[in-house]
Design goal:
6-stranded mixed sheet; alpha+beta
């Protein structure tokens, strides 16, 4: 199955944007309102074999189908995805745990987080409309830089 079909089955839009059928906000089981946040997580560290980096990122994407796209080199990577959370603090907390919590299960390199961007849905769409920021047409999947 190709990446295009795979992400459609996971509920993501064909252009790598936000998941289809999701509203700007949703009410959680406890009555709190959650929102969609676009996450860009950057990690870096000592060089690792490219094949191992790719395999680890593919495993992470397989384990967690919310990941939209990953780009990588032998000493750094960038992961982009949508997170549903009550506020920016919750979205950032989840994002900051992602790499460390899945380092062993996905056999990811022992890299550290060197960057994190968390923006709300409106800001993401405003940036795209103004011609800057991450483009939604970035192919879904794991790709070299």
């Amino acid at each position: 199955m190709g990446a295009g079909r795979d992400h459609m089955e996971r509920g993501e839009s064909a252009d790598g944007g936000e998941p289809e059928g999701t509203a700007a906000t949703a009410v959680e089981g406890n009555g709190e309102v959650s929102r969609l946040w676009h996450i860009t997580l950057s990690v870096s560290g000592a060089e690792a074999p490219l094949a191992e980096v790719r395999r680890g990122l593919e495993q992470l994407a397989n384990d967690h189908p919310f990941l939209l796209t990953s780009r990588y080199a032998d000493d750094h990577a960038e992961i982009r995805y949508w997170e549903e959370a009550r506020d920016l603090h919750d979205a950032a907390a989840v994002a900051l745990r992602l790499w460390g919590e899945h380092r062993s299960t996905a056999r990811l390199p022992p890299w550290e987080i060197v960057g994190l961007e968390v923006i709300d849905r409106e800001t993401y769409h405003q940036r795209v409309a103004e011609g800057y920021g991450p483009l939604p047409a970035t192919p879904v999947g794991v790709h070299p830089f």
